[in-house]
Amino acid sequence: MKIEKGSVVAIDYSLHLGDGKVIDASAPGDPLTYLHGEGQIVPGLEQALEGLAAGDARQVVVAPDQGYGTHDPEGVQEVPRTAFPKEIRPEVGMELMAQGPGGEPVPFVVRDVKLETVVIDMNHPLAGKTLHFDVTIREIRAATAEELEHGHAHGGDGHHHH
Fold first, then answer.
1. Nearest 5°: CA angle at 98, between 62 and 85?
2. Are residues 84 and 101 in the same domain?
3. pTM (2 decimals)?
4. Is residue 115 in a domain?
C-alpha cells in the first residue's frame, strides 16, 4: 500500500535545522501516527511522503513556507510588564501561553525583558527555519470510517481523545 489521502501512516522521524543537531524526533518504538491529507504534519513533509510505501526511508528538506511559515515581524510585540501575573517573572527564552480574543491558547516566547515592558514573540519557534527531516515509513493502512469522520488517526488500542 502506498501513502495517499485517507491513509493512516506511522513514521519514525528526526528533525534538525541543517546542522545535524536533532531538535525533535519520534521515540524509539513509538512512531508518529497521522492521517495523511488532513494537514496534521507540515505541508512540505506531507507532500514528500505521498506515494511512499512501508519500509521507505527519505531525507526531506522543507522550506519555511512549506513548514511553520516565515517569521512574521508583527508576531513580535512589546507588552507592559503588568500584562504578566505577579507570580510570573518573565525571563528571556521562557515559553508561555496567553489567551487569544476567543479564549484560544496563544503560545509565545519571551525575547527581551526591559524595565517597564517585555518583548514577546508569537511566531512558532521554527518559523523562518528550513527543516531537515530523516523519515522512515513504518506502517500504512487505510483509515477507518470513524477516523475519516473525525479527521485524525486513532490509536491501535481503540479510540482516545486527550
1. 140
2. yes
3. 0.81
4. yes
Q: 86 in a domain, yes or no?
A: yes
The answer to whether residue 49 sits within a structural domain is yes
Neighbours of 50 (CB within 10 A): 13
The span from the CA of 1 to the CA of 50, in Å, is 11
Take residue 96 and report the three cell numbers written for it: 508561555
How many whole angstroms separate alpha carbon 115 and alpha carbon 60? 44
Q: Same domain, yes or no, for 78 and 32?
A: no
DSSP tag of 162: -
pLDDT at 101: 84
| pLDDT tens digits for range 1-29 | 999 999 999 999 999 999 999 999 999 99
Location of C-alpha cell 501516527: 33
Pair (19, 47) in one structural domain: yes
